[in-house]
Amino acid sequence: MRIIYRDLKHGQIKLAVETLDDLWHLQRLVEPGDLATMPTWRRERAEMDKLRPERLEKKPLKLSIKVEGIEFHRFANRLRLLGTIEVGPDKGKHHTFSLEPGATLTLTKRWRPDHLERLQEAVKASRRPRVLLVALDDASAELGIVRQYGLEQLSTITRPTAGKHYVVEREADELKFFHRLAAAMSDVMTREGIRVAIVAGPGFTKDNFSAFLREAYPDLAAKIRRDDVSSGGRTGLYEIIRRGLVERVSAEDRVSFETMLVERLMGEIAKEGLAAYGKSEVERAASLGAVEKLLVVDEMLREHDAIEGLLEQVRETRGKVIVVSTEHDAGRQLKGLGGIAALLRFKLRG
């Protein structure tokens, strides 16, 4: 979840929904009586005197509804807000907003301290990298993701029972099983934007799978962390969580990710390539739509008002804003460049 702007004096906060977890948080933030405003599309009314009116184009507009009901459809990745139109055409009529990841919503309400705390929790959670969990034994692989509302089991890949097959047949079955598992993992990680997976289980199957990935799927192999748990299946997923493996890998992955970006930035600066640093130079790049990734140290976000316009400008031109921690060397290196820098889509002139 991202906060695009806030005006607590008038009770307004504009939010960008990024993940399914954000919808879960919004389900608990939005209450009956709140005013929800979203962009929507509507066709113009056809003229009645035309025998065969042309198909009319949809035009963008904003509607505000007074919320009467909230429905969270977790498996459809959708949150529905039901209410009556307060601002816009057809005032007083019933209308439903359907929110999915990628939507923006302006919420006007009386913001209590617990609301603001939950909102900050959602914002922090969105910066935390997610991890794919795979509990693997010699019979099956269970895939899951830890979301804000708990563990979501995604799928189960079952290995055919070898029975009295010859060794060659058992090895062929194992290869098929590993290929299916690798394909399922790649699909989830691409769809969910996950950069790292924990593969854990008893025995040697996880080690055999890891060796298989290094040979057949080297890109995926580089994203895998192996560990031991006492069982596979659902029980194994929960054991991964209980042992704190997710938090440890998440922290390592985030530091690695931020360090890689800062190293890339320094490389571009050294060769006078696709990089800008310092507030004025980054602002110039943003005004030209040149910013691919904006790197900002966490300390600078405390002065959010001073850079809010810049952050929004980068987002509007489809650039990514990445907050870099000053608790590690790469963050301190970025701080030495003024605390803000950008990796660019194209080189600036002059």
Structure overview:
By secondary structure, the protein is α+β, with helices and mostly antiparallel strands. Strand 9 (140-147) and strand 10 (150-158) form a beta hairpin. The strands form three sheets. A seven-stranded antiparallel sheet has the order 1-2-7-3-4-5-6. A five-stranded mixed sheet has the order 10-9-8-11-12, with helices on both faces. The longest helix is centred in the middle third of the chain and has 26 residues, at 167-192. Helix content is 38%, strand content 32%. The mean pLDDT is 85. It is globular and about 70 Å long.
Secondary-structure blueprint:
Layout: E1 2-7, E2 12-16, H1 20-29, E3 35-43, E4 58-73, E5 78-87, E6 94-99, E7 104-108, H2 113-127, E8 131-136, E9 140-147, E10 150-158, H3 167-192, E11 196-201, H4 205-216, H5 218-221, E12 224-228, H6 233-242, H7 245-270, E13 275-277, H8 279-287, E14 291-297, H9 304-316, E15 320-324, H10 329-336, E16 340-344
Helix pairs in contact: 1-2, 7-10
Concise overview:
With 350 residues, the protein is α+β, with helices and mostly antiparallel strands.
Features of this protein?
single chain; 350 residues; alpha+beta; SH3 type barrels; 60s Ribosomal Protein L30, Chain: A; 3 domains; seven-stranded antiparallel β-sheet; five-stranded mixed β-sheet; 38% helix; 32% strand
Average pLDDT, rounded to a whole number, is 85
Whole-angstrom Rg: 25 Å
Q: Ranges with pLDDT <50 over ≥5 residues?
A: none
**What is the tally of helical segments?**
10
SSE-based structural type: alpha+beta
What is the CATH topology classification name of the largest domain? Nucleotidyltransferase, domain 5
CATH hierarchy, class of the largest domain? Alpha Beta
Beginning-to-end CA distance, first to last residue: 37 Å
Q: How many domains would you count in the coordinates?
A: 3
Indicate the percent of residues in helices.
25-40%
Cross-sheet strand order for the largest sheet: 1-2-7-3-4-5-6
Apparent shape:
globular
The overall strand count is 16
| The CATH fourth-level homologous superfamily of the largest domain | eRF1 domain 2
The topology string of helices and strands comes to: EEHEEEEEHEEEHEHHEHHEHEHEHE
- Going by CATH, the architecture of the largest domain would be 2-Layer Sandwich
